[in-house]
């Protein structure tokens, strides 16, 4: 196995963890485990080629991103008049797009960001925690494309990112990285690493969103909760994402199985699954009701 240590992707950083997982989604031949440091960092490995070369080769093109079923205007949509997926998505539009995307290799871009099993009084599908609102109503797909546009040529951006010297650009990214938020005492704006943002999006492939099958248009007194894999206590007030670092090299399917098997509430079983440490998300505290910032920090479990 050829291994590359990635100090730029630390396990105690939500976006760094998602990005490391996203590497295995983009390139199935790459495996992921975490170093035994006090703060584990990602270690990617491959049996045949240098894993960085493999990742660079697998980096998606802008055309590939446009082909993702979650795109607002999907070119492959075969519906008679086409179906748009703006930020506020009518559940009927989401269901129609899901029908068209059935069997598509990236149909997860719909089911990991929204669910038609949670419908509000306006008839709109509920978005997952990792698909938060953004300025100007930009969809998650638009934010992904904006981040991706900076990564050109890919090698010049990917290797420095993995090594911990990645270049940040001004922008909101996907919209949930706490490290993008500057000091409240200055006007520095928000800055993100576009490589991390793109990889983190693909990490969502292992985190499907689900709901209780409630439509508030017809059940006004029902409780409307949705959950995304890894999130416990599915309520707006106390919703935390839990994620582990592990010591054995795993591909995307092994990681998926591990996330199903381990429990953050049963630390005595962690050795059985090779868990080194785990964290839970901490919500960004908004400065006022008008502050629309969404971000997730981390606290070690």
Helix and strand arrangement:
Layout: E1 2-10, H1 14-26, E2 31-34, E3 41-46, H2 51-58, H3 62-66, H4 91-101, H5 108-111, E4 114-119, E5 125-127, H6 140-148, H7 154-163, E6 169-170, E7 191-192, H8 194-203, E8 209-210, E9 214-215, E10 227-228, E11 231-232, E12 240-246, H9 252-261, E13 275-283, E14 296-300
Written account of the structure:
The protein has 301 residues and is α+β, with helices and mostly antiparallel strands. Helix content is 27%, strand content 20%. It has 9 helices and 14 strands. The chain has a 4-stranded antiparallel sheet, with no helix packed on it. The mean pLDDT is 92.
Which terms summarize this structure?
single chain, 301 residues, alpha+beta, four-stranded antiparallel β-sheet, three-stranded antiparallel β-sheet, 9 helices, 14 strands, 27% helix
Rg of Cα set: 19 Å
How many distinct helices?
9
- The string of secondary-structure elements, in order, is EHEEHHHHEEHHEEHEEEEEHEE
- Span from first to last CA? 31 Å
Q: By helix and strand content, what is the structural category? A: alpha+beta
Poorly predicted runs are none
- Largest sheet: spatial strand order: 11-12-13-14
Helix residue percentage: 25-40%
Strand content: 15-25%
Shape: globular
**Average pLDDT value?**
92
- The biggest beta sheet, please? 4 strands, antiparallel
* Total strand segments: 14
């Amino acid at each position: 196995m050829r291994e590359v240590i990635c100090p730029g992707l630390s396990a105690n950083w939500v976006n760094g963890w998602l990005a490391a997982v996203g590497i295995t989604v983009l390139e199935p031949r790459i495996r992921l485990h975490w170093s035994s440091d006090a703060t584990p960092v990602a270690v990617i490995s491959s049996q045949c080629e240098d894993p960085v070369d493999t990742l660079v080769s697998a980096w998606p093109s802008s055309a590939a991103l446009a082909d993702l079923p979650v795109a607002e205007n999907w070119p492959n949509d075969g519906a008679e008049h086409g179906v748009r997926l703006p930020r506020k998505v009518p559940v009927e539009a989401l269901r129609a797009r899901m029908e068209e995307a059935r069997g598509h290799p990236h149909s997860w871009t719909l089911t990991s960001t929204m669910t038609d099993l949670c419908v509000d009084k306006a008839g709109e599908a509920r978005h997952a925690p990792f698909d938060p609102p953004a300025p100007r109503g930009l969809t998650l797909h638009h934010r992904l494309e904006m981040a991706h546009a900076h990564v050109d040529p890919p090698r010049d951006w990917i290797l420095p990112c993995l090594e911990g010297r990645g270049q940040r650009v001004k922008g909101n990214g996907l919209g949930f990285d706490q490290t993008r938020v500057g000091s409240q005492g200055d006007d520095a704006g928000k800055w993100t690493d576009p490589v991390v943002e793109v990889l983190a999006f693909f990490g969502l492939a292992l985190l499907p969103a689900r709901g209780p099958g409630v439509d508030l248009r017809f059940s006004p007194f029902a409780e409307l909760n949705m959950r995304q894999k890894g999130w416990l206590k599915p309520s707006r007030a106390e919703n935390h994402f839990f994620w582990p670092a592990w010591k054995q090299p795993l591909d995307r399917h092994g990681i998926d199985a591990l996330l199903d098997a381990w429990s953050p509430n049963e630390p005595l079983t962690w050795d059985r699954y090779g868990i080194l440490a785990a964290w839970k998300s901490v919500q960004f505290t908004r400065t006022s009701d008008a502050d629309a910032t969404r971000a997730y920090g981390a606290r070690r479990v």
